[in-house]
Amino acid sequence: MSLLEVQQVTKKYPNQDSKAVNAVSFTLQKGEFVSLVGESGCGKTSLLKLIDGKEDADEGQVLFQGKKVTGPSQNLLPGHPGIEMVFQDFDLFPNQTVFQNISYFLRRYQKWYQEERIQELLDMCGLLGAEKKYPRELSGGEQQRIALARAMANSPQLLLMDEPFSNLDALLKNRLKHQIADLVHQTGTAAVFVTHDVMDALSLSDKIIIMKKGELVQVATPQTLYQYPATPYVARFFPNSNVFSINALSALLPQAVDVLPQNGQEAFLRAEEIEICPEGDALLTGIVKRLEYLGAYTQVQIQLSKDFSLRVNSTNINLSLGEQVPIRFDLKSLHYFTKKK
Ligand SMILES: Nc1ncnc2c1ncn2[C@@H]1O[C@H](COP(=O)(O)OP(=O)(O)OP(=O)(O)O)[C@@H](O)[C@H]1O
């Protein structure tokens, strides 16, 4: 039995024209780490609230450990006890100290255990010594970590995290994201992690769900998602992907018309699959339009025609804007999408 089964869940808020969540189905196993990625307003938070029983579904159902999760219409205190949710706005008690904020979630335990557990949680989140502070005395990132510590206090079976790293600096985010992933794997806690950053999703998840306008577009492992994005929307989440129309490429490569499909479809090519090459080996030639130095390589935007440019990853640090550069790639490495939208 799956830990969580989301079955055809649909939600439309009053006064909204379209459904915030539309016939969404997926399963989650014990200890599995799933990321939910999608553009702003596509229904990620709504889906988390439906899973946790904080919103009523119009259609479909959520089963947690085989039992139906009921919403606020049937519960005085919405929210399932085995599921914890970390909200984007932290939801801390403003007039209580950090210790009180966390201990409220441990109120059923004896004082000595509360104290021990709170030290453990604060240590994990890098906030030892903050027990007596009030939320207003903490930075956004610190408040966010307290919200995480609080959600993990009771070692929930399912942790729902709504962009938990949005207020953290890069150093802290890197530390915390690996701690959370380790914790999930060590304790058998399952997690649904909402993020805008598909690279975070790639590095942390067992499975990634891509959402668009309330619907699931693709559910896949990070490897499959990266190699075979099902639609242009999915591919565009990756900073190194080039999505373009085959017609635009065919116009520049009349000699390749026979090997390129002529149905006006889109294709994609990763920036690392294209190289700047010696002039005699060029497939195409373009002008350097933008240089983005990223440490290990530079991402170079090369304009090939008025409406067609490609991003290329290059280790050449001597390129300059406006320079003419020859590029090549294997036409066989072009990827085509299995779905249109
Ligand atoms: N309580 C509500 N009442 C009415 N409409 C809502 C409510 N909550 C969300 N919506 C609408 O439902 C849609 C989905 O919102 P939701 O917050 O779930 O998206 P999201 O993907 O989490 O967005 P973001 O990434 O910006 O947080 C949006 O159009 C939003 O305006």
Automatic annotation (TrEMBL):
<dbReference type="GO" id="GO:0015697">
    <property type="term" value="P:quaternary ammonium group transport"/>
</dbReference>
<keyword id="KW-0067">ATP-binding</keyword>
<keyword id="KW-0472">Membrane</keyword>
<dbReference type="GO" id="GO:0043190">
    <property type="term" value="C:ATP-binding cassette (ABC) transporter complex"/>
</dbReference>
<protein>
    <submittedName>
        <fullName>ABC transporter ATP-binding protein</fullName>
    </submittedName>
</protein>
<dbReference type="InterPro" id="IPR008995">
    <property type="entry name" value="Mo/tungstate-bd_C_term_dom"/>
</dbReference>
<keyword id="KW-0406">Ion transport</keyword>
<feature type="domain" description="ABC transporter">
    <location>
        <begin position="4"/>
        <end position="238"/>
    </location>
</feature>
<keyword id="KW-0408">Iron</keyword>
<dbReference type="InterPro" id="IPR003593">
    <property type="entry name" value="AAA+_ATPase"/>
</dbReference>
<dbReference type="GO" id="GO:0005524">
    <property type="term" value="F:ATP binding"/>
</dbReference>
<dbReference type="GO" id="GO:0016887">
    <property type="term" value="F:ATP hydrolysis activity"/>
</dbReference>
<dbReference type="GO" id="GO:0015408">
    <property type="term" value="F:ABC-type ferric iron transporter activity"/>
</dbReference>
<dbReference type="InterPro" id="IPR015853">
    <property type="entry name" value="ABC_transpr_FbpC"/>
</dbReference>
<dbReference type="InterPro" id="IPR017871">
    <property type="entry name" value="ABC_transporter-like_CS"/>
</dbReference>
<keyword id="KW-1003">Cell membrane</keyword>
<keyword id="KW-0410">Iron transport</keyword>
<keyword id="KW-0813">Transport</keyword>
<dbReference type="InterPro" id="IPR027417">
    <property type="entry name" value="P-loop_NTPase"/>
</dbReference>
<dbReference type="InterPro" id="IPR050093">
    <property type="entry name" value="ABC_SmlMolc_Importer"/>
</dbReference>
<dbReference type="Pfam" id="PF08402">
    <property type="entry name" value="TOBE_2"/>
</dbReference>
<dbReference type="InterPro" id="IPR003439">
    <property type="entry name" value="ABC_transporter-like_ATP-bd"/>
</dbReference>
<dbReference type="Pfam" id="PF00005">
    <property type="entry name" value="ABC_tran"/>
</dbReference>
<keyword id="KW-0547">Nucleotide-binding</keyword>
<dbReference type="InterPro" id="IPR012340">
    <property type="entry name" value="NA-bd_OB-fold"/>
</dbReference>
<dbReference type="InterPro" id="IPR013611">
    <property type="entry name" value="Transp-assoc_OB_typ2"/>
</dbReference>
